[in-house]
Design goal:
- The protein folds into two domains: 62 residues, Helicase, Ruva Protein, domain 3 (Orthogonal Bundle); 35 residues, no CATH class.
- The N and C termini lie far apart (65 Å).
- It is built from six helices and two strands.
- Helix content is 44%, strand content 3%.
């Protein structure tokens, strides 16, 4: 069971795919890390030696921001935008899309499935009259 940056990566998957379970590492970055560590991307995690796991762990810890550190940086950036009263910061504060999407019809991704129109949250009448 390989544990890298506080994340237990799945042992039945290929190393290339299992590294993407770490927040901040995608497919391209995973391949770059595997090239630096000289590990075959087609190998399964359960077949990795302790030396290979340690090389992967060292490269990720030294070179890249992942997991908690990256999440903290993103939150600090959003907080900074709110403090300087930028347009994007105000959109974040109101829980609306910040990157120019239209909100007349859609915009549910950021807001969640919240319907803010007349009768959307109405409850049916208790009795028929």
């Amino acid at each position: 069971m390989a544990r890298i940056s506080g994340v237990t990566i799945p042992k039945e998957k290929r190393v290339e795919i299992s590294l993407t379970y770490i927040y901040g590492i995608g497919r391209v970055l995973a391949n770059r890390i595997l090239q630096q560590a000289k590990v075959n991307p087609d190998k399964r995690v359960k077949d990795l030696t302790d030396d290979e796991v340690n090389r992967l762990r060292e490269i990720i810890d030294k070179s890249y921001k992942v997991e908690g550190e990256l999440k903290r940086d993103v939150l600090m950036n959003i907080k900074r935008l709110k403090e300087i009263d930028s347009y994007r910061g105000s959109r974040h504060a109101k829980k609306l899309p910040a990157r120019g999407q239209k909100t007349k019809n859609n915009g549910r991704t950021v807001r969640g499935n919240v319907r803010r129109t007349m009768g959307s949250g109405r409850k049916p009448a208790g009795q028929k009259t």
